[in-house]
Specification:
Length: 290
């Protein structure tokens, strides 16, 4: 009974902190809206997509909320957020970037070589402007999603209930977030869940939120800029030259959803997740903190 009461107390403590974190985030978003309205009467700066603008504002609000809750509730222990100094070490960042690229380039390369991705040629044109602009888009969107799922929320669960709870809950939330993407199905959400599991394992293994963010950006950017296919059901305006077209069963390739919705990429991400267990940072949470 004592153990049960402790669990209840922990759950209430986690919920209270998350409510405070969410309230701080919403307050900053509201204040940003008031401050930016006179500057951008149309609502969005010229030349910037609405979803990217929103992602930038929400990301800023999330960063401020992280600072507030760590200062007021976590006794300045930055490790709970993944922002701590050693989370920015070059090795952790390199692991994140390489793991993310490998998780897409390896299965994508195999599917391309076996004819499951067909290259459709078009009028030649510059590639770099699209590569640079799409990198900015994915960096903003990934930053928002990583701060939501693998920042303070992940750290709280990791410190109180351990890695299984942290990775499991954030994986489920990450998959459900993509339910609203075009063409989402139970199968594609399962694929996104595997990607969320991979990112959670990366956050746990390296102790670095930045590493998970780099991997997230790499996964999305490689699909769009290298293979030129949809990303999580989103069909981008692709540059001239060529684009990829999925051939064969959607369960294998991901079909119109993109590589992360198929078994090939899911298998690669799961394999990399297992390999990450061997590089677990010794300073990550253990689930014993109160």
């Amino acid at each position: 009974m004592t153990a049960f009461n402790e669990r209840v107390d922990e759950a209430i403590g986690i919920l209270g902190r998350l409510v405070a974190f969410t309230a701080a985030t919403l307050l900053v978003v509201f204040l940003c809206g008031i401050a930016l309205k006179p500057v951008f009467p149309a609502g969005v700066p010229p030349g910037l997509e609405g979803r990217v603008f929103i992602a930038v504002i929400v990301t800023f609000a999330l960063v401020v909320a992280h600072v507030v809750v760590v200062a007021l509730l976590e006794r300045a222990e930055w490790q709970v957020t993944g922002f701590q100094v050693d989370g920015w070490r070059p090795l952790a960042l390199a692991i994140g970037l390489i793991a993310g690229l490998a998780g897409v380039l390896l299965p994508g390369g195999i599917l391309l070589s076996t004819g499951h991705i067909k290259v459709i040629t078009g009028v030649p044109g510059p590639w770099f402007p699209f590569a640079a602009s799409s990198l900015g888009v994915f960096a903003a969107l990934a930053a928002m999603e990583e701060l939501i799922f693998r920042g303070y929320f992940f750290g709280l669960l990791l410190d109180r209930w351990g890695p299984r709870a942290a990775i499991g809950c954030t994986t489920a939330g990450f998959a459900l977030l993509h339910f609203f993407n075009p063409g989402a199905t139970a199968w594609t959400l399962l694929g996104v869940g595997v990607a969320g599991f991979f990112l959670g394992m990366l956050r746990y293994a390296t102790g670095s939120l930045a590493a998970a963010w780099l991997a997230h950006v790499a996964i999305n950017w490689a699909q769009a800029a290298v293979f030129r296919i949809p990303v999580s059901g989103l069909h981008l305006q692709l540059p001239p030259g060529f684009h990829g077209e999925m051939q064969g069963p959607a369960w294998l390739t991901g079909g119109a959803w993109g590589l992360e919705g198929g078994v090939a990429t899911a298998a690669a991400l799961l394999l990399i997740s297992l390999l990450l267990l061997g590089v677990r940072a010794p300073t990550v949470g253990t689930g014993r903190r109160r």
